[in-house]
């Protein structure tokens, strides 16, 4: 049994496999993960951060728009109340 193993893998072949095989497996793993992300549609961390930044910006714009709308409604309420008061005094 030892002779069969020794005949298939001598020290030089084993060293070459360890030196070049490990980085190959690592690169193949990274490629596989990237391919799975593309197939499943999962965004990368950069894309997730950009999406979160865009969402935060949209929320701020929405909030500012609502604040402006609130001010306008208050102004309209004031105008209507003033008009009612003038009509009540006359």
Number of strands: 0
Structural class: mainly alpha
Note the main sheet: none
Q: What is the overall shape?
A: rod-shaped
**Residue fraction in strands:** under 5%
Q: List SSEs in N-to-C order.
A: HHH
Distance between the terminal alpha carbons, to the nearest Å?
Answer: 116 Å
Helix percent reads over 70%
The helix count comes to 3
What count of structural domains? 2
Folded structure, characterized:
- The protein is built from 3 helices and no strands.
- The relative contact order is 0.04.
- It starts with a helix and ends with a helix.
- The protein has 90 residues and is mainly α.
- The chain has 2 domains: 1-42; 45-90.
Give a quick summary of the entry.
The chain is built from three helices and no strands. With 90 residues, the chain is mainly alpha-helical.
State the main characteristics.
90 residues; mainly alpha; 2 domains; 3 helices; rod-shaped
Secondary structure topology:
Layout: H1 2-8, H2 11-40, H3 45-89
């Amino acid at each position: 049994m030892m002779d069969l193993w020794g005949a298939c893998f001598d020290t030089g072949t084993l060293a070459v496999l360890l030196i070049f095989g490990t980085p190959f497996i690592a690169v193949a793993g990274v490629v596989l993960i990237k391919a799975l992300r593309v197939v499943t549609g999962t965004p990368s961390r950069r894309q997730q951060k950009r999406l979160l930044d865009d969402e935060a910006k949209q929320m701020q714009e929405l909030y500012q728009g609502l604040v402006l709308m609130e001010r306008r409604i208050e102004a309209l309420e004031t105008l209507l109340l003033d008009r009612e008061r003038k009509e009540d005094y006359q």
